[in-house]
Predict the structure.
Amino acid sequence: MSNQNPTILLIENDLELGSMLKDSLELKNYNVDVEHRGDRALQLFQAAKYDLVLLDVVLTGISGLDLAKTIRETDYMTPIMFMSAKDDDKEKIHAYCSGGDDYIVKPFTITELSLRIYALLRRAKPKLVNQEMPETLRFGDFTFDYPNRVLCTPTDTVPLTKKEADVLRMLAINVNNVVKREKVLTDVWGENDYFMGRSMDVYIARLRKKLSEDKNVSIVNVHRMGFKLEVTNGAAG
């Protein structure tokens, strides 16, 4: 496993779901080992160092609750997030009492899972998260989570495409300052030509629509120069 990205031990009874989660998390720059049996997962955990454990409650060989208890006999620090289809208080209490730090109910979105993972790592491994993930940016009423490509508004959580996230980040870290059109094109699209420029204009229009909920935030065209994320009220940072 690479030493550069956070490492996750994913223990999921459903082989298809486990494979899908592994692929999705690796796209977000996590290193993921996946196991389907609780007893073999314990052997993996004891043989390697992981930054976080994603643990299904229902497993073969040893239950998720018993596996967490066994891990906690020697390791008090590694975050454990339980995954379960049961959304009731009794099940959640058992999970937390077994050593869990979080509990996510199936079915869940990759966005929600990623945000929860990031929150756990931010608390348990702040140096690792700060080194590997760009900062969360705030402007107006919005919170922009660049690593997970999510724009949080006062009423919704809006997923962004990679290009939307890359463009918004360039504007947000230069809030109230002009970012040259040519720089956006070369940094995000890889080249500066007419057709790429038309594509960029489409993405800018999409971002404007997603930012329209806060009238104090807007993407402004600066003639013959570029774009500016203009925030007229409230802190940005």
